Amino acid sequence: MKIQSWQFRGKKDGVSIVEGTSDAPPKWVSNLLFSLATVETLIALGFLLGMIDPGKRGSVLGALGGCLFAAALHGGLGLWLIRIRNRILNMVPQEQMTEWLGLEQAQIDAIVQEQGIRPSYIINGRPFYRKEDFDLGSLLRPSSAPENTVELLRPSHAEQEPTELLLRASDTAPDLSANTLQAEEETEKQPLQKR
């Protein structure tokens, strides 16, 4: 079993530095903290029910307060870790910026320097940026219109359909006289065996 770690190492120039075996805190840690908070809340409810006996109120009150404090602490830590995990999972590491923005690494470095964008986290030595920090409206460039508008209306493939596969109108005109239509209706009404 691989030991998982995720440790906060401080801040440098306002950027949080983290080291660990994964990019974000493991989800099981926050689940463990929520489980502890639930158990501590249930124990606190048990102590609360123990306060019914007037002789035990003093000793039970301290245990009740301790359990509720521990439940609030563990629940708060669990929420904090989930918030950090979701924030990091919505960020883009520097090596994926070229793919996400469709720009060269040198262009991204120039944008970071020009706009003064700082990473939100440095995790395992890799900077992670928030997507909102990159103003995509200023990064998009207008395309030039084609000189010939006919190019916009060309088919997706250049092959022509063979003319022998196309449907054609019949050379003879259909007979729409009343006698012909009545005879066709009668043959349709007859049972299949008599035909």
Key descriptive features of the protein:
6 helices, flat, 47% helix, five-stranded mixed beta sheet, single chain, alpha+beta, 195 residues
Secondary-structure topology with pairs:
Layout: E1 6-12, E2 15-20, H1 27-50, H2 57-89, E3 92-93, H3 94-101, H4 105-115, E4 121-123, E5 126-129, H5 136-139, H6 178-189
Parallel strand pairs: 2-4
Antiparallel strand pairs: 1-2, 3-5, 4-5
Helix pairs in contact: 1-2
What does this structure look like?
By secondary structure, this protein is of the alpha+beta class. Among the domains are: 24-89; 93-134, no CATH class. It has helices at 27-50, 57-89, 94-101, 105-115, 136-139, 178-189; strands spanning 6-12, 15-20, 92-93, 121-123, 126-129. The chain has a 5-stranded mixed sheet. A hairpin with a 2-residue loop joins β4 and β5. α1 runs antiparallel to α2. The N and C termini lie far apart (80 Å). 10% of the residues are buried. The mean pLDDT is 75.
